[in-house]
Structure formats: C-alpha cells, structure tokens
Amino acid sequence: MDKIIVFDTTLRDGEQSAGAALNAEEKLEIAKQLDRLGVDVIEAGFPSSSRGDFDAVHLIAREVSRPIICALAYAQPKAVDAAWEAIKEARYPRIHVFLSSSDIHLFYQLRKNREEIIDIAKNMVARAKGYTEDVEFSPMDATRTEPSFLYQVLEAAIKAGATTVNIPDTVGYAIPKEFCSLIDGIFDNVPNIHHAVVSAHCHNDLGLAVANSLAVLDRGVRQIECTINGIGERAGNAALEEIVMALGTRRDLFNYTTDIDFTQISKTSRLVSECTGMPVQPNKAIVGANAFRHESGIHQNGILKERTTYEIIDPESIGLAGTTLTLGKLSGRHAFKSRLRDLGYTLSEEELSRTFATFKELADKKRDITDRDLEVLVAEELRAVSETYHLEQVQVSCGDPGIPTATIKLVGPEGQILADAALGTGPVDAVYKAIDRIIGVPNTLTEFSVKSITGGIDAIGEVTIRIESEGKTYVGRGASTDIVVASAKAYMNALNRVLATKGEVNR
Ligand code: KIV
Ligand code: ZN
C-alpha cells in the first residue's frame, strides 16, 4: 500500500476564509491537535503577510516537533527569507514558494511574461533551497495554465531544488476527468518529475475538491493538501476528514494508507469550528451534526437491528463515542489535571489553577461535567491569555415591563478597574452598550448566535459573534451557563482581537 502524505493547510488556506482570523494561541492549539490527528505536514501560515502570522508560525515551529512545519512564501526574496526566519527552529522545516502561471494571472495581475515567470520560479526555489532541503513549489492557477508552459515551470522548479511540486486548482474549476489528464500530462512531459513528490491542492467552487483530490491518486499524486471542515478561500478547500475517511472506508478501491488517527477527527473538527467561529453545516459529510442521525422510521428500525444497514462508518471510529461522564463537584485537582491530560491538554500550573477554579464554579451550577464541558473551559482559558481588557463583572436587570439595564466592570491594560452602565433594547444590547462606553472601539455587530454545548437545562451556552471594525471582520466567542454572560464574554473576545490587531499594525 502506498502512503499518502496528508498536508494540512487549515492554519494557512483555511484561515484565509472570510472572518476566520486566529490568534497565535489558537493556532498553536490547533497545530497541537493536528499533530495528535497524525497529519504529515502542517502549513502553519504565511509569515510575510503580517507580524501576527509570523509570530504564530514561529511559535508552532518551536512547539510542534513531529510533523513537517511548512511556511508559505510569495516568490519574492523578502517573503522567502521571512518564511525561513519563522520556521528555522522547526525540527522538520519546509518552505512553500508559490507563483502564478496562468496567462490570465500573468497578464492582469503580475504583468510579467512567461520567461520572467520561469526565472523567478528558479531563483526563488533556489533561494529557499539555500535555507532548507525541503522545498515545495506551487504554480498558482495550474489548472488554467497552458499545459506546455506548466511543464516548463515545473521542470525549472525541480531543477532548482523543489522536492514537492503542488498542482493547485486555485479557483476550483477542474473536473475529475480533466484534472487526471493534466496530471498524466505532467508525468509524461516533465522529464525530472520523478525527483519530486507530486501534490494536489483543490478548491471547492464547484463542490469537486474532494473528488478531484481522490481521482488523481491513481495517476501518481502522493500528497493531498486539505483543511479541517473544508474551510478555506471562498467555497473552501478539500476537506481532510472526507478524504481520509473515503480512503479508509473504501479500501476495496483505494490501495493507500495515511497516518491519520481517525478517532481524533471529531475533536479536531470541533476545535477548528470553535476557534474560527465557522459552524459546520449539519449535513456536512463525516463531521456534520446530522451525519450519523437517522430520522425516518425505516432507517431507525434497520439501525436498531444492524448498524451497517444504514451506516457506512462507525461513529465511534471518528471519536464520537458519546459524551463521557467524567468529573463532578467532588473531583480534585489531580483528577481534573489527569482528565485534561487524557484529552490532550497540557496547561501550565497557572493556567491549570485558573481552569480548575472555573471548573469548581461550573460544578456548583451543573451536576454532570462532560469532556465537552472541559474542552470549553480550556478554550475559555486560552482566550483569556491574550486579553487587553478582562471582563470582571456583569450584572443585568430586564423583564417585561422593564428597561433592560446593564452594569459592567472591566480590568484594564494597567490593572485598573473600569465600570459603567447603560440601557438597551434587551439585556445583551445593554451589556454591549455598557462595554462600548468603557472601551470605545467603533464597530458593527454583524452576526450573533447561541448554541448549547451539551444537553440539559444546566448546559453551557456558547455565543459566537462577528463584528466589523474599520473594514475587517472579527470573531468573538464566550461560554457560560448564563447566556448573557456568554454574550458579554464573546463581545470582549472580539474587541480584544480588534485591539490586538491594531497593536500589531502600530508595532
Ligand atoms: O489555491 C492556491 O493556489 C494556493 C496556493 C498558494 C498553493 O493556495
Ligand atoms: Zn489554495
């Protein structure tokens, strides 16, 4: 069986989804989970694009040592140098250089001719090679590039030292038959192609990203670039979970293996959805809430008799064993720490103390605390790490008749206590207005959603919001058994992100 290299680009192409910006702590948390999932390559970001992304890639390169850590770079000297600076401490570093090759990009965007493109590709791959052995090259918009020119670019890149050549269907235009012919053409016409791994990178504009990625395996492609939940530019990228589960479920057709631990799929999907604030559509294959729900009587009847009558995948195999009852009010710090470790979290002593204190508060309000609840508590702790303003107290009065009123107390950047109050059309509006009176960051709330993490009246509610400030979208999340408090936390989280971004810009 041939091994397929799983190249995860959730933290780079996935993060390019509108409004999905992640901070360094969240990126690191996701990278650690991708490590547990067993991906071979983590494309951690695009260091030359912003100081924040540089720092996040640098952090991941230092902290995550098993997989290859890859940094993306424009085919420009400064970008290649920044990519190297960010990943040079990685155990297995890779630089990924990209450059458009289609006439439409050359003419309208780059304003360069084909000879210039070949020269730049050669020089920038060679520059990256001066830093590391492991260099990937992508001719952007490959599927709309004239094949004979594509062959020349690939040959030049491999000659200059590229060890992986990636074929991006940048605009999601290809269909499987056509994509297979393109790959066949590459193997037949690029003389040195056997010196590199050939990779596929498919976008989902026509809903064909996974189909295109799987189709070309039989034509010699050995690396697939994909993202968790299929997030990415526009309609997204090929979904990792769909690819690996297709390979795992249809072993009769695909003679390929991956190193993915399927039992980590569900948790990884949830983490990415929570950090990016991008909900997974209920009917999404593998990880959607309805993917293993059977509604019609005849299906339910079949499942009760024999699961395989209507299920091609055992939900337990992707880590959906049901919520395990774990801890309660009387559990001690040791049991708490050990359960977190089993779930894959290693917190510092300080983080552990704070999370344990919130766990005890929660245990006073909620009888059974599940693994899902613990995941939320850890996420709350990680969010708190990068705060400029911290929510100390929130108090509302509302009703009908009544005038919704909120009083807010915050701790400011210098540890000062800041308090104010406001009226609103409802309790959340009043809370947001009171916070605005203290922080004063101009913004518009564009989305607001609440969901309960587990079942039951005492469940934790998680609020996800989006705000727009100076033309940029920011996600905010907050969780609490009280949804007004969760709403306040979500707003503070979004505002802290705005402030962190501004700080970065002003640096
Ligand atoms: O879609 C694309 O072409 C890309 C490249 C940077 C590989 O994401
Ligand atoms: Zn892409």
What does it look like?
The protein folds into four domains: 2-276, Alpha-Beta Barrel (TIM Barrel); 291-319, no CATH class; 321-382; 390-506, Double Stranded RNA Binding Domain. The mean pLDDT is 93. Helix 5 (114-131) packs parallel to helix 6 and helix 7 (176-189) packs parallel to helix 8 (209-215). It has an eight-stranded parallel β-barrel, surrounded by seven helices. Strands 13-14-15 form a three-stranded antiparallel sheet. The radius of gyration is 24 Å and the shape is globular. The protein has 507 residues and is an alpha/beta fold. It has 16 helices and 18 strands. Strand 6 (135-140), helix 6 (147-159) and strand 7 (164-169) form a beta-alpha-beta unit.
Class based on secondary structure composition and strand pairing: alpha/beta
Strand content: 15-25%
Q: Unreliable runs, pLDDT <50, ≥5 residues?
A: none
Question: What is the CATH architecture descriptor of the largest domain?
Answer: Alpha-Beta Barrel
The number of E-state strands comes to 18
What is the assigned CATH homologous superfamily of the largest domain? Aldolase class I
Distance between the termini: 51 Å
- Report the CATH C-level class of the largest domain: Alpha Beta
Q: How much is the average pLDDT?
A: 93
Largest sheet: 8 strands, parallel, barrel
- Compute the number of structural domains: 4
Strand order of the largest sheet: 2-3-4-5-6-7-8-9
Q: Helix content range of the residues, please?
A: 40-55%
Q: What small-molecule ligands were found?
A: 3-methyl-2-oxobutanoic acid, zinc ion
Say what the CATH topology of the largest domain is.
Answer: TIM Barrel
Q: How many helices does DSSP assign?
A: 16
Radius of gyration, Cα only, in angstroms?
A: 24 Å
In one word, what is the shape? globular
